[in-house]
Amino acid sequence: MVKQTWFYDAIIYIYALSLLFYFSDFVGPNRSAKRMGTGLLSFVWVLQTIYLAYNLITHSTPMAFSRFETLFVLSWLLVTVSLIINRFVRIELFVFLINVFGFAILALNFFSNPTISPTLASWKINDELLFIHISLAVVSYAAFVVSAIFSGMYLFLHRKLKSKQWSQQMLRLPSLENTDRYAFLSVVIGAPLLLLTLTLGIVWIALEGNYMLFFDPKVLNSWFVLLAYIFYLFQRLLLRSPGNRLALWNLAAFFVTLLNFVAANVYSTFHQWS
What we know:
The structure is a single chain. The protein is mostly helical and 274 residues long. It has two domains: 6-117; 127-266. 77% of the residues lie in helices and 0% in strands. It is built from eight helices and no strands. It has helices at 6-27, 31-58, 67-88, 92-111, 125-162, 176-208, 217-239, 243-266. Residues 69-269 form the Cytochrome c assembly protein domain. This is Cytochrome C assembly protein.
């Protein structure tokens, strides 16, 4: 059995990337994104299948399978089911959600296994989980910063055009349509990554065994951040709200994100930056 976490880390990152493409296809039908998501998820399935095949060969009886391998089989089955459904039925949200659940099971299974050694000798296994958690969080917050900047540009350009105040600087800005689209695409990247970040955070808390951390201000506010961006997507995709209203709400959601950092530094018991 693989003892170093680099193999499992690779599966986790590829799995997360496949879910990002699936979410992109869900919010706006995109055949390229769906093909990428399906390809990456299929690769995850191949890696899992190789692992399972190796264990079937090395174990003399099925009864030799441990809890680790049983949960691994469950995650493999969820990936298999999602690929079959994705092939025959177009239910992108179901495929995304079932794989978020499978992602959580896989992460909990990997990082709760005492026989696996971290890639870096100086780390503990939970440190490796925390590294993946933080790396996904950083990318999601970076996407939210980009989205907020585009929304600010949208409001600036919208006000100038409405008041017919033309300037040379306006010619160097993208159109209102493109600015709104770039802000939207940034949220499409940030929101699912934040969901996966929170999923890994739940796994980390479960492994630590301190369930009061679920009520930590940073954890609770992170859910508010996710809900704020989900509501932004809801307004854009279902309510078809005008661009200026979407930009205002996107900036409001980013303000909640900034409050999240304040909560982490001032009130959180384990997310402090200084």
